Amino acid sequence: MQAGAPTADATRDPTGRGIPSWVLGLVPLLLIIAAVGAFSALDGPGLGERTGPPAEELAIERTTLVPGAIELTVRNDGPDAVSVAQVVVNDAYAGFRGAESPIGRLASEKLVIEHPWNEGEAYSVALVTSSGGTIEHEIPVAVLTPETDASFFGLMALLGIYVGVIPVALGMLWLPWIRRIPPGWLRVVMALTVGLLAFLALDATLEGVELAGEGSQAFGGVALVFLGAAVAYLALTGIGSWLSRHRRARAAAGASGSTLAMLIAVGIGLHNLGEGLAIGTAYATGALALGAFLVVGFALHNTTEGLAIVAPIADAKPSLGRLALLGLVAGAPAVLGAWIGASAFNNSVAAFLFGAGAGAIAQVIVQLAPSLREPGERSLAPRVVGGLLAGLALMFTTGLLVSV
């Protein structure tokens, strides 16, 4: 080294020798926090008084019907505090309790509207604010909200098992047949699997967007769906990489068949969690007809998910315990979703979970896609394309049997 040449440390830190790097990174952050805090404490100096009417927005997150009363859980979705002055039900003023003081930004309150209602009838509720604004809410069909006791949770668990666990387990019975088909037709089955998963991802995204539009927009609205998708996609990418390094099974499309089966089960499980949320909420609000036809429809719709799980492990010999674990990971979240949806449903949380399901499934599709091509080919064979279309058609057809 030549005399007088700067050292490496001096080159990297010419202005702060001896100062730890984390301190240099923390100082600007602290200054930003201090500046924002001072601006807020001084009430925005220089901005002057705001003119015009207040921006009042209330999102109705939950409706509960009890004998002689309608309970609404509302959240302030706007920048200004909101005071509920009057409540109108079907063009008639009604007394109410709750929200005695203004509801602050992002805060929630429960309004108990003292109004007798008749089962099966529709009701239009309007919340009139102190400034004269109106927030309207529709109850298409009035049905008594069931009590969340032990028997209620038992019913939700049974429903989740019927539409989640049992169908997935039945679908996994295709494993012996998959093991006997030639490699070329196995690629067709894998294409069928990708078609099934693609439809599930699209369905979850659409469900999430619809729920996000009905919930509080202050928490992100539709953005929650795509945030959930990004979080699940990145998380499963990391998990898949970790599992691949810790398994010695034969590699397939960048991950072992066993790893892919588990990732598919996780993705389907997240989707079934969102599906359980919808089922539980519909039951609690009386919008779901719990008939045998509907249960059969859900079962047929979800049976194909079991085929998607076992397709990547056609050349493996998993134990019964491993297969049971895959089935539970994919189907059991429907039970949890039904519990949450029936007792503590939140549109924003549900939108995030539906997005997470879509993102998880998309990550699995990326893993499966390379295995669809014939060795040495860049394009897909016609029968593989047919498998993709058959998967989409199968999910669409069975989906027609399900109406919530």
Layout of helices and strands:
Blueprint: H1 8-12, H2 21-41, E1 58-66, E2 69-76, E3 84-89, E4 92-97, E5 108-114, E6 123-129, E7 134-139, H3 150-171, H4 175-180, H5 183-214, H6 223-245, E8 251-252, E9 255-256, H7 257-284, H8 292-310, H9 320-331, H10 333-343, H11 347-368, H12 382-399
Antiparallel strand pairs: 1-2, 2-5, 3-4, 3-6, 4-5, 6-7, 8-9
Helix pairs in contact: 3-8, 3-9, 3-10, 5-6, 5-7, 5-8, 5-11, 5-12, 6-11, 7-8, 7-9, 7-10, 7-11, 8-12
Quickly describe the structure:
The protein is of the alpha+beta class and 404 residues long.
What does this structure look like?
- With 404 residues, the protein is an alpha+beta fold.
- The protein folds into 2 domains: 82 residues, Immunoglobulin-like; 250 residues, no CATH class.
- Helix content is 54%, strand content 13%.
- The protein is built from 12 helices and 9 strands.
- The strands form 2 sheets. The protein has a 7-stranded antiparallel β-sheet, with no helix packed on it. It has a two-stranded antiparallel sheet with strand order 8-9.
- A hairpin with a 2-residue loop joins strand 1 and strand 2.
